[in-house]
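Thread title: Can someone regenerate the structure for this chain?

I was given the following input by a collaborator and told the matching structure tokens would be attached. They weren't. Posting the sequence so someone can regenerate them.
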Amino acid sequence: MKTIIIFDVDNTIYSKTFKKVLPMTKKLIKTLYHNPNIELGVATGRGLKKLDVIDDILYMFKYKIVVNGAAVFVDEKMIFDEPIKTQDIKEVLKLTKGMDFNIGMVGINDEAVNFWDDRIGYGMKALRGVFPKVDETFYLHTSVYQLWMFADYESKILEIAQKMNKFRVFPWHQGGADFTYPHINKAFGIKKALMDQNYDRLICIGDGYNDIEMLDYADIAIAMENTRFDKLKEKATYIAPAIDKDELYDFFKSIDII
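Best answer:
Regenerated them for you:
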């Protein structure tokens, strides 16, 4: 039986608390990688370059679904991408101009923000460990696949999101969220990645709001205990121990995947 296992990255295999892949999680990935009946993938809101946080194990993942499904790589080759239209980005910047929102623009290998403040510095360090450049015109010379937004409160983001009809919002912490086209999500990207592949079952594991469609699409869906989204747990076949417990290896053994 050929099994494909797709992992979210942040707080699923990469611990933001410890800023690394923990030892038993790494053991799990290596064990799965060496099983000839298993192929691995990652599905993440990060761009490709920002996967350097798992650089020492990244080669083990055949499938890379990045920027929440807007770009897909198989065996290091891009097989699909759908950047955001320039006019749509202009509309977002116009809508939020003069308001207290940091707008981020995510490319495959780089990202930028329209302006910098302490909120960006804290949020990026705490949540992604990356520091975007300041360039409000980034979208004019680089393909942008995803937008993100920072505000003091999540409620402000959700309120402005109602005026951004072309986009869907994926909250990822109390003052930050990703924005993509409504049809773009991790499940969409996984379908693109696997459309020419033969396999018997798909296992997906994640912790975020942007993992809901992915878990719903999977044959076996695993939600991390550390998720703050009850809807994700409702989609799950299993609940895995919180990432910082570093018990994923034993958990996968307990459900007979290894």
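The domain at 86-180 is CATH 3.30.1240.10 (Hypothetical Protein, Haloacid Dehalogenase-like Hydrolase; Chain: A; domain 2).
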